[in-house]
């Protein structure tokens, strides 16, 4: 019984993680503006569309630089975000 409940619980958690990933949007491009001391960036896509996202010091995972204060205009980035808040930022080297 416990084994079955654990199995069902594991399947539920996995399903919720997939739904959460599907809800996040992704934007790829170049940082065109850094605002609020690194708390917000604007990303310009190859198509010319600009999208701004907020960056949290605790909830946003940043890869490729040490911290949000290292984000600079002209860097190539991929940003996963939800409702305008960045969840993950990958800076290309």
What does this structure look like?
This protein has 93 residues and is of the alpha+beta class. It has a single domain (25-91), classed as OB fold (Dihydrolipoamide Acetyltransferase, E2P) (Beta Barrel). 24% of the residues lie in helices and 41% in strands. The protein contains one helix and six strands, in the order αββββββ. The protein has a six-stranded mixed sheet, with no helix packed on it. A hairpin with a 2-residue loop joins β5 and β6. The mean pLDDT is 86.
Describe the protein's topology.
Blueprint: H1 2-23, E1 25-35, E2 40-44, E3 50-54, E4 61-63, E5 76-82, E6 85-91
Parallel strand pairs: 4-6
Antiparallel strand pairs: 1-2, 1-5, 2-3, 5-6
Summarize the structure.
By secondary structure, the protein is of the alpha+beta class. 24% of the residues lie in helices and 41% in strands. The radius of gyration is 17 Å and the shape is elongated.
Keyphrases for this structure?
single chain; 93 residues; alpha+beta; six-stranded mixed beta sheet; 6 strands; 24% helix; 41% strand
Structural class: alpha+beta
Number of domains: 1
Fill in the CATH topology: OB fold (Dihydrolipoamide Acetyltransferase, E2P)
Side by side, the strands of the main sheet go 3-2-1-5-6-4
Major β-sheet, in short?
A: 6 strands, mixed
Q: Rg from C-alpha positions?
A: 17 Å
CATH classification class: Mainly Beta
Estimated share of beta-strand residues: 35-45%
- Quantity of strands, as a count: 6
């Amino acid at each position: 019984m416990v084994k079955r409940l654990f199995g069902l619980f594991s399947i539920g958690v996995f399903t919720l993680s997939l739904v959460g990933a599907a809800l996040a949007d992704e934007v790829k491009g170049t940082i065109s503006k850094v605002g609020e001391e690194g708390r917000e960036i604007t990303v310009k896509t190859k198509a010319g569309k600009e999208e701004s996202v907020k960056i949290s010091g605790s909830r946003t995972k940043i890869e490729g630089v040490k911290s949000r204060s290292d984000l600079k205009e002209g860097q190539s980035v991929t940003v996963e975000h939800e409702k305008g808040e960045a969840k993950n930022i990958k800076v290309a080297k």
